[in-house]
TrEMBL record:
<dbReference type="InterPro" id="IPR024765">
    <property type="entry name" value="TOBE-like"/>
</dbReference>
<protein>
    <submittedName>
        <fullName>Sulfate and thiosulfate import ATP-binding protein CysA</fullName>
    </submittedName>
</protein>
<dbReference type="InterPro" id="IPR027417">
    <property type="entry name" value="P-loop_NTPase"/>
</dbReference>
<keyword id="KW-0813">Transport</keyword>
<keyword id="KW-1003">Cell membrane</keyword>
<keyword id="KW-1278">Translocase</keyword>
<dbReference type="InterPro" id="IPR017871">
    <property type="entry name" value="ABC_transporter-like_CS"/>
</dbReference>
<dbReference type="GO" id="GO:0043190">
    <property type="term" value="C:ATP-binding cassette (ABC) transporter complex"/>
</dbReference>
<dbReference type="GO" id="GO:0015697">
    <property type="term" value="P:quaternary ammonium group transport"/>
</dbReference>
<dbReference type="InterPro" id="IPR050093">
    <property type="entry name" value="ABC_SmlMolc_Importer"/>
</dbReference>
<feature type="domain" description="ABC transporter">
    <location>
        <begin position="3"/>
        <end position="233"/>
    </location>
</feature>
<dbReference type="InterPro" id="IPR003593">
    <property type="entry name" value="AAA+_ATPase"/>
</dbReference>
<keyword id="KW-0067">ATP-binding</keyword>
<dbReference type="Pfam" id="PF00005">
    <property type="entry name" value="ABC_tran"/>
</dbReference>
<dbReference type="InterPro" id="IPR003439">
    <property type="entry name" value="ABC_transporter-like_ATP-bd"/>
</dbReference>
<dbReference type="InterPro" id="IPR008995">
    <property type="entry name" value="Mo/tungstate-bd_C_term_dom"/>
</dbReference>
<dbReference type="GO" id="GO:0005524">
    <property type="term" value="F:ATP binding"/>
</dbReference>
Length: 354
C-alpha cells in the first residue's frame, strides 16, 4: 500500500513549518525523511498519521483520500523515539494492547502476540516489564506492538535516537532485515544521514519546511541538487573560486567541475564543493594543478585516514581522506609539506558579484 502526502502546508503561530511538501512512499518501501532539527519531519509524519491536521494538502493511501480520516481509522503503526511502552504492563500486554482495543478474541490475541515476539526475536520476554529490558529490546517490543494490528503502514520517528551508538547500529541492520522480510510500507524520520543511508530504499531530504531532494541514497549522495544537500550529506570542502573564460580557478588551481552553463558563461565568484575523498595528496607537485599545504592533523582511526591540511596561500583548511595503505606508504606526519589536487569537484549556481 503506497502512501502519499501532497502539497502539505502547515503553520504554527503564523509560522509556516511545512511549505507545500509532497512526498511518496511506494508500496513496500522503507523511506527516510532526513533533515536537520526543525525542518518539519515530525510534523509531516504526524500529519500522515492523522495526529495533526494540515492547513491544506491531502494524504492518500494508495488511491484513497484519507485526509479527513481519524488516526485510528488510518490503521498505521507508530514507533517513537521515547519508548511508548506502558510501564505498568508486561511486554505481552503491551503488544496485545492494540488488539484488545480492536476487540480481537482472546485466542487470536495470544497467537498474534507470540508470533510477533518471535518475529522480533524476544519470545522469552513476554512476562517482563519494560523497566526490566534494555533500550534496544524496548524498541523492538515497540515495533512488535506497532505491527500487531497488521497495519498497512509503519511510521517511525527517530526510533533509535535515544540509544547509544553501538545499539543503534545493530538495530538499524535489524530493522533493514526485518523490513526485507515483511515489506510493510514504512516512513522513518531521522536527522542522521548515515542512518538514513543504511536503512532506507529512498531518502527524502527536508530543510526549512520543504523537500530539497528525493531519491535513492546513491542518487542523492552522488548527485545532490543544491548546496544544502551537498553540505548536509557528509563532509565537504568549500572553495571560493573565480569563474573566468570557462575555467574555475582557486588561485592558479583549476577545479575539475566538468562542463555546463554555469562554467561556460559565468564570471565572478562561485563556491566549489569537493568531498574529502575527491582530493589526492602527494609529496610533490606532480600534476602542477595542486594546492600547496602543510599537514596539521591526522586521524588514522577508521576505515579512511582523515588528514587536515593548512593551505597557507589561500588561508584555508582542507580535509582530505586517504586510504590506510596510502597513509602508511607515504609515512605522513604532522608538519609535512604536501600538495593536494582535486580529482573531481562540483559547482552549483554562482554567486555573481559584478
Ligand atoms: N505543536 C507545535 N506548536 C508550535 N510549534 C510547533 C509545534 N510542533 C512543531 N512546531 C515547530 O515546527 C517546526 C518543525 O518542527 P518538527 O518537530 O516538525 O521538526 P523536525 O524536523 O522533526 O525536528 P526534530 O528533528 O528536532 O524533531 C519547529 O520550528 C517546531 O518548533
Amino acid at each position: 500500500m503506497s502512501i502519499t502526502a501532497k502539497n502539505i502546508w502547515k503553520r504554527f503561530d503564523g509560522k509556516a513549518v511545512l511549505r507545500g511538501v509532497t512526498v511518496e512512499a511506494p508500496t513496500g518501501a522503507l523511506v527516510a525523511l532526513l533533515g536537520p532539527s526543525g525542518s518539519g519531519k515530525t510534523t509531516l509524519l504526524r500529519i500522515i498519521a492523522g495526529l495533526e491536521v494540515a492547513d491544506s494538502g491531502a494524504v492518500q493511501f494508495h488511491d484513497d483520500d484519507i485526509t479527513r480520516h481519524s488516526a485510528r481509522d488510518r490503521n498505521m503503526g507508530f514507533v517513537f523515539q521515547h519508548y511508548a511502552l506502558f510501564r505498568h504492563m508486561t511486554v505481552f500486554e503491551n503488544v496485545a494492547f492494540g488488539l484488545r482495543v480492536r476487540r480481537w478474541p482472546e485466542q487470536k490475541v495470544r497467537d498474534r502476540v507470540h508470533e510477533l515476539l518471535n518475529l522480533v526475536k524476544l519470545p522469552e520476554m513476554a512476562a517482563r516489564y519494560p523497566a526490566q529490558m534494555s533500550g534496544g529490546q524496548r524498541q523492538r517490543i515497540a515495533l512488535a506492538r506497532a505491527l500487531a494490528p497488521e497495519p498497512k503502514v509503519i511510521l517511525l520517528d527517530e526510533p533509535f535516537g535515544a540509544l547509544d551508538a553501538q545499539v543503534r547500529e545493530e538495530l538499524r541492520h535489524w530493522l533493514r532485515r526485518f523490513h526485507d522480510q515483511f515489506h510493510v510500507t514504512s516512513i522513518f524520520v531521522t536527522h542522521d544521514q548515515e542512518e538514513a543511508f543504511e536503512v532506507a530504499d529512498r531518502v527524502i531530504v527536508m530543510h526549512d519546511g520543504k523537500v530539497e531532494q528525493a531519491g535513492t541514497p546513491a542518487e542523492v549522495f552522488e548527485h545532490p541538487v543544491n548546496e544544502f544537500v551537498m553540505k548536509f550529506l557528509g563532509r565537504v570542502n568549500v572553495f571560493q573560486t573565480l569563474l573566468k573564460d570557462g575555467r574555475v580557478l582557486l588561485g592558479n588551481v583549476e577545479m575539475p567541475v566538468g562542463k555546463g552553463a554555469v562554467v561556460e558563461t559565468g564570471s565572478g565568484k562561485a563556491d566549489v564543493y569537493v568531498r574529502p575523498h575527491e582530493l589526492d595528496i602527494g609529496r610533490t607537485a606532480d600534476t602542477g594543478n595542486c594546492i600547496r599545504g602543510k599537514v596539521v592533523h591526522i586521524n588514522p582511526a577508521g576505515s579512511v585516514v582523515k588528514v587536515r591540511v593548512h593551505a597557507e596561500d589561500f588561508g584555508l583548511m582542507v580535509n582530505v581522506d586517504i586510504s590506510p595503505e596510502k597513509y602508511r606508504s607515504m609515512d605522513l606526519r604532522a608538519d609535512d609539506q604536501v600538495f593536494v589536487s582535486p580529482k573531481t569537484a562540483k559547482i552549483f549556481e554562482p554567486d555573481y558579484t559584478i
